[in-house]
């Protein structure tokens, strides 16, 4: 992969990462609720899912998902249901500070939440099927190019999601009253439900 090609892909990766989506909502909500240390677990889950999605594309299974209406619908429904469930759960979360035990339990589940949020989004895989081949030079060995693409996408997304979480975390001290925490829960819960509803209504 040439430098010009890589820079073009980097620009595309930045645009994709910065675009608001369920991953950004999760990063901000977790950073605001728990701080960056816990949000990092969710972000690592998001990146693990991203690597799995890239592997699916490389192995050719992504093309099957893109071509099969049934497979796409099944993954889409699962993803939309999960996002809506997260939203309802967030909406109904108690507007109070968690004790140490509850905080630890929520923290342990953040990696899995991040993993599932990205992994159950079939549009991401279909998008990669359309995007990634355009940056692969067929005249050069392909596996090193796939490695560069994976490292670029994961690195870019990790930085952007970390920025979302850190910026949200800086607001924690001003939004720690029960009234403000209830408002946070309603805002982020609504955003998760909206993201799930949009996914459910989307097409390939």
UniProtKB/TrEMBL annotation:
<feature type="transmembrane region" description="Helical">
    <location>
        <begin position="187"/>
        <end position="203"/>
    </location>
</feature>
<protein>
    <submittedName>
        <fullName>Homoserine/homoserine lactone efflux protein</fullName>
    </submittedName>
</protein>
<dbReference type="InterPro" id="IPR001123">
    <property type="entry name" value="LeuE-type"/>
</dbReference>
<feature type="transmembrane region" description="Helical">
    <location>
        <begin position="51"/>
        <end position="84"/>
    </location>
</feature>
<dbReference type="Pfam" id="PF01810">
    <property type="entry name" value="LysE"/>
</dbReference>
<keyword id="KW-1003">Cell membrane</keyword>
<comment type="similarity">
    <text>Belongs to the Rht family.</text>
</comment>
<keyword id="KW-1133">Transmembrane helix</keyword>
<feature type="transmembrane region" description="Helical">
    <location>
        <begin position="142"/>
        <end position="167"/>
    </location>
</feature>
<keyword id="KW-0472">Membrane</keyword>
<keyword id="KW-0812">Transmembrane</keyword>
<feature type="transmembrane region" description="Helical">
    <location>
        <begin position="115"/>
        <end position="136"/>
    </location>
</feature>
